[in-house]
Amino acid sequence: MVHYIIRRLLYGILVLIMVIVVISSIIYLAPVDPERLVMGQRTDVGSLEAKRKELGLDQPLYIQLMWYLRDLSPIAVHENSQSAQEKYEYFPLLRFNDKALVIKRPYLRESFQSGRRVSEILWQAIPRTAILALSAILLATIAGILLGIVAALNQNTWIDNLAVVVSVLGYSLPSYVTAMILALVFGYYLGDLTGLNLQGPLTDYDVLLDKEVYIWKNLLLPAIALGIRPIGIITQLSRSTLLEVLQQDYIRTAKAKGLAKNKVIFKHALRNALNPVVTATTGWFAALLAGAFFVENVFNYNGLGLETVNALLNFDIPVVLGAVIFTSIAFVVINLFVDILYAILDPRVRLA
Questions:
Q1: Helix (H, G, I), strand (E, B) or coil at 6
Q2: CATH of the domain at 259
Q3: pLDDT attached to residue 152
Q4: pLDDT tens digits for 107-120?
C-alpha cells in the first residue's frame, strides 16, 4: 500500500506539472499585455517596460515556466537578500554569495488586479466552496440512498419507475442549467414566498457587528443545484447494488431464519450494498469542486469558482493559475483517497 501511495503521489506531481505547463502556455501566449492590466492603460512606456521586467514577462516562455515552478517548489534557490526573504517568506538553508538554498511555502505570486497575495485570495474563497461542495454531497447522499432504497423495495412498480426517471433526468441536466432554473423559479418568481435571493454571497461584512457573517439561506439553492446530478447517480447505484445484495444466499438464509424484513434489509443487506455508494460519493466530491465553478457564477456565490471566473474575465493570470493548481491537487488527492477507501471497504481489491 505504501509503495502504491508513493507512486500515485509522484504521478500526481507529474500531472500537476503538466497542467501548469499547458495552462501557463495557453495564458501567456494570449494576445494580452498583463503589465497594462497592472499599471493601467495610460501608463508611459518606460513604466510598462519596468513592470514587464519585474514580472519576468520579458523572458522566453520556458524561462517564465521554470521561474514559476521554482516559486511553487518548497525547496528552491532564490536571491540572498532581505527583500527576497520578505517576498517569498523563506528560511535559508545554505547561503552562497548572492544566492541561497531555501525552504518555503509555495509562492503563488500576487494578483494583477488587487495586488494581494494569491494564496490569501484562495484561502478566503476555498472554505466557501468546500462548504458548498460538502452540503451538496451530503444532500445527494441522503436523498440518493433513500430514493434508491425505496426504488429497490418497490421494484417494477410505478414508484420504482418514477425514481428511475427522476434520477436519469437529474443526471442528464448540467449543473449550470439546474442552477439557472432554480434561481429563476425560487429566487425570482417565488422569491417573496420562499425568502430566498436570486443571487447572493455566503458571507458578507456586517458593519454593525464589525465582522464577517454567514448568510446561510444563500447556500440552499446552490447546494441543491450542485447536488442534483450526484443524486441521480447515487439513486441508481443504491438501487442496483441493493437489488443485487438481496439476491445473495446469506440474505435468503437470514429470511429463512425468520428475521424481520426491516432487520434483514437495514442490518445485513444495506450495509454491504453501501460500499460502492460510499466510494462513488467520495469520488463525486472532486467533480463537485469543478461543477461549483459554474454554479457559483450563476448565484454570485463568493467562492473559488466565482473568483476564478472573475480572474479569467480580467485576465488575472496568477489567480487563474493558483485556482487551477488547487483544483488539480484536489483531484489527485481525492482520487487517491477513494482508491484507498475502496480497498479498505472491499478486501477483494488489491492496490498494485
A1: helix
A2: 1.10.3720.10
A3: 87
A4: 998 888 888 999 99
Residues 49 and 151 in one domain: no
The three cell numbers locating residue 216: 446561510
Domain that holds residue 303: 118-345
C-alpha cell recorded at residue 153: 423495495
Nine cell digits for residue 221: 439553492
In a domain, 108, yes or no: no
Q: Do 202 and 328 share a domain, yes or no?
A: yes
Those residues whose C-beta lies under 8 Å from the C-beta of residue 160, and which sit 6 or more positions away, are 151, 152, 154, 239
Is there a domain that residue 128 lies in? yes
Residue of 253 and 127 predicted with greater confidence:
127
- Is 110 within a domain? no
- Shared domain for 69 and 193, answered yes or no, is no
Note whether 259 and 319 are same-domain residues: yes
Residue 35 Cα to chain centre, angstroms: 30
Number of domains in the chain: 2
What pLDDT, in 10s, does the model give residues 10-49?
887 888 888 888 887 777 777 677 777 777 667 777 777 8
User: What residue type is 71 in one-letter code?
Assistant: D
Of 1, 9, 2, 3, the C-alpha closest to 336 is: 9
User: What global pTM score does this model have?
Assistant: 0.85
- Cα dihedral 48→54→55→61 (10° resolution): 100
Strands (E), the chain: 75-79, 91-96, 99-103, 203-206, 211-214
Q: How far is CA 3 from CA 341, 344, 350, 351, 352, in A?
A: 16, 16, 12, 9, 8
Q: Which cell numbers hold the place of 159?
A: 414508484
Q: What three-state secondary structure class fits 16? A: helix
Q: Can you read off the three cell numbers belonging to residue 37? A: 492590466
Residue owning grid cell 500537476? 16
Are 340 and 5 in contact, with CB atoms under 8 Å apart? yes
